[in-house]
Write a structure and sequence with these properties.
11% helix
Length: 45
Amino acid sequence: MRNGFRVIDTDSHQMEPQSIWKDYIDPLFADRAPAIGNMGNGKRA
C-alpha cells in the first residue's frame, strides 16, 4: 500500500494470441471476427 491506498495496475499490456478470435468465437459471427492480415505493402494490420 502506498499512502494508505492499494495500487492496482490495469494497464498491463497483455497480448492475446493471434488465433483467439478464430478459435473461440461463435461460428455464427466468425465472418465478422477481428483478424490480422497483410495490407499489401509488406505491413500487417
